[in-house]
Please model this.
Amino acid sequence: MTGEPEPAGVRCLLMRGGTSKGAYFLAGDLPADPAARDDLLLRIMGSPDPRQIDGLGGAHPLTSKVAVVSPSAGGDADVDYLFLQVAVDTAGVSDRQNCGNLLAGVGPFAVERGLVAPGDDGRTSVRIRMVNTGDLATATFPTPRGRPAYSGGARISGVPGTAAPVVIEFPPGGGPLLPTGNVRDTIAGTPVTCVDNGMPTVLIPADALGVTGYETPRELEADAALRERVEEIRLAAGPLMGLGDVGATTVPKLSLLAPPAHGGAVSTRTFIPHRCHTSIGVLGAAGVAAGLRVPGGVADGIADLPAEGDRLRVEHPTGFLDIDVRVAAHGDGPPAVTRTAVVRTARKIFDGTVFPRPAHTSPLERQDR
Ligand code: NQM
Model:
């Protein structure tokens, strides 16, 4: 007998959101103090540990994610969604990036927890403030008989089977699409286009890094020289993109571009930023798609743009992501995004009480905010 009290359980809903998986919490069920909250989340997810064996995390950044949801105080949103990336093998929790995949589960979660009343026509729209960036999104999904439906006919690459569609519209955000002010930059001797359409992303022609851009994520991750070069570009791009020192953060992302191989607009391999994504993030794809539409960017001569319409097919290692992005330039002004929309799916996996491992086992090193 240790005599030590067992940690209290926390109400939690485990969901797949798009091609990611995460733990969803009501903000009121977590400590208000960010340091105490992050310490608790590390113990819930099982970090730091490469296998996250003692927690909910799935031993990969894409399955070590948290959504914190609360009623919104502002008039233009129904709920606030704070995304937290829980590092896998270090004791870090970062709010420096957003996640458009977990975003797909936020609307259904808000209905599950009674934060938003279901629509009376079998569909519900939830206006979401993404606290990490201040940007807004509206998610619309089926709620027959007042409950979110998760089964349906929508298919997204990277997820087996089909599920109910979650249609997400993003009104234009406040920041510039080209955060360095340039259509092209040369960083660490490499031509790049730096974009931000909800996620800071550096677009790089794959051949400028000596790869084809069709390698598997595992092959790219095994290439130590490539990873070093990608990290060198990222660290230099951060300050140029107005992000400051990005050493301890998970942004910017870096997408290697190659000509489409399967009838899409472009082929991508995306570093997020140290692992190579098995598909591509939603907002990462929104940035890539916007970057393809910027005349004179590094995608010129690589991408194959459809003659009409907003939809672009972004190819990735496990299929493709279709996303609607419209870019316009007014007069001599810089190009700006006027519309972004995407279809995702989400699924409630488990609803219950999660028990964190005891406090003294978690040395907390919070990441730079
Ligand atoms: O870009 C992974 C993901 C993401 C983020 C990452 C995301 C997005 O696939 O909107 O969803 O880039 O870290 O979940």
